[in-house]
Amino acid sequence: MILQTEKFVFRELNGEASGHDWWHIYRVTKITKTIAQQENANLFICEMGALLHDIADEKLNSNEAEGIEKVREWLIHVNVDETSISSIIEIISTMSFKGGGGPPMKTLEGKIVQDADRLDAMGAIGIARTFAFSGAKNQIIHDPNIKPREHVTKEEYRTGKTTAINHFYEKLLKLKELMNTDYGKKLAETKHQYMEEYLEVFFKEWEGE
Ligand code: ADP
Ligand code: NI
């Protein structure tokens, strides 16, 4: 079931350039498995949740409900049992960040997949994804006249009307505090530290130092 699902997700997401490509799923699935082992969670639910977490995204479907339906049909198609289907669907329908953070995840498995997704938005990879997303939205790197703002409206967030550097303040630097699991928190700490160091060097270089 997992192998078939990997192939399905690869077909759906291959070549997506806004940071939601197959390799994002590959990394999130790997971090998910690492955390799941540490937290003694249900590995099957975690792995399937991680693989499918972006398939229902609004960016890939006309609306979220249609995306969720696509995932449900897929799970039935590969013979996943009803209880597991409910758990997996519950995870992917509640976890998106959407600029403001949704309701807390109900299950341990959901908490783990959400942590893994957030961890992939942090650190060296998170920085790369931020600049890739910015480029795709014609957003500039930085403007010293734009003061760092923690709050960006849903519309500004959706349309990418902020700078790449501002994205650190509106999202990346907040993620550490949002981690659900102990192991996720530990991983987030290192990545957070790295982003702080990156910004320090960035601003120095900006002024020619
Ligand atoms: P996810 O739900 O996987 O966190 P998003 O769709 O919110 O993904 O974003 C995809 C990637 O692009 C993430 O790494 C995110 O931090 C980055 N990103 C999202 N919005 C912006 C933005 N306005 N400016 C720069 N990067 C962004
Ligand atoms: Ni994701």
TrEMBL record:
<protein>
    <submittedName>
        <fullName>HD domain-containing protein</fullName>
    </submittedName>
</protein>
<dbReference type="Pfam" id="PF01966">
    <property type="entry name" value="HD"/>
</dbReference>
<feature type="domain" description="HD">
    <location>
        <begin position="21"/>
        <end position="122"/>
    </location>
</feature>
<dbReference type="InterPro" id="IPR006674">
    <property type="entry name" value="HD_domain"/>
</dbReference>
<dbReference type="InterPro" id="IPR003607">
    <property type="entry name" value="HD/PDEase_dom"/>
</dbReference>
